[in-house]
Amino acid sequence: MMKRFLSALALALPLTLPLGAAAQTAYPSRPIQMLIPYPAGGTTDVMARALQEPLQKALGQTIIVENKAGASGVLAAREVARARPDGHSLLFINSGIVAVTPHVQKDAGYDGVKDFAPVAMVTSAPLFVIVPGTLPVTDLKSWIAWARKQPGPLPYASAGVGSFGHLTSEMFAKAAGLKMTHVPYRGQAPTTTAVMSGEVPLLITSMSSVMREGIASGRLKLLGVTSAQPNAQNPGVPTVASVLPGFAAETWFGFITTAGTPGEVVARLNKEINALLPTKDIQDRMLGLGQEVKTMTPAQLGALIADDSARWGQVVRDNQISSQ
To answer: 203 lies in which domain range?
Structure first.
């Protein structure tokens, strides 16, 4: 009897093993939706679309890119947070979507740490301290000394309430011991104009081609970079930390998916994305956008999201920042 049972088991094993293997390699079983939380043509959109074709080749499945803009990225984030947890819905984000927006928008409808599974980091980039070219300062230290002598709170520009530049500027003001007033504009372009004209004496933001032209012409002065270490793309620009020890702020871009997505699916996505990033084509495209390619494991990205959320949430609460 036992012999017959063992013989039947031996015959069954070759049949069951391929089925198990097939179940593990079934992903992706249908087209993948890649949501972009901002309009077409912006930095986030350009970066995501640069990865679309090589990633779908690596996965052997179509990737459908959809721009779902609105509410500072909340609409797209909600959709992915509520999707089936199977890895077929991806969200390409900047760090603010998970680390800032849920704190600033009380009705965001998602938790940036709990409602998503981190997949892969793609790039990171610092912000830059920009001031009018007409100011009588030569570096960040002399700008802070000048600012402390001015009567009343100084205004500073940002691309909007709750933007990364807004929060970083508040953190900068506190570190420098300055009282400053937030002046929100509608996007980066008008903030650059405001600083060039001397309307505001400070802007902390990401770099743009217009800013580089302004710096080259002397209409703007570049005083510092917010990364902990000097920025390879801007050699010679001192870190803010060299004047205000411990200061660091960087934004990043990457992929997340729905919480509860199987670990093997997340691992597959992470592996394929990380394999694409060192290629020359992707490196060149990202550098052209002022971004530095950076890879992480899902666990490392998850830890970063949790740390960023705690850090920026504190800045939001300390300064009573709200978009409502």
So the answer is: 128-242
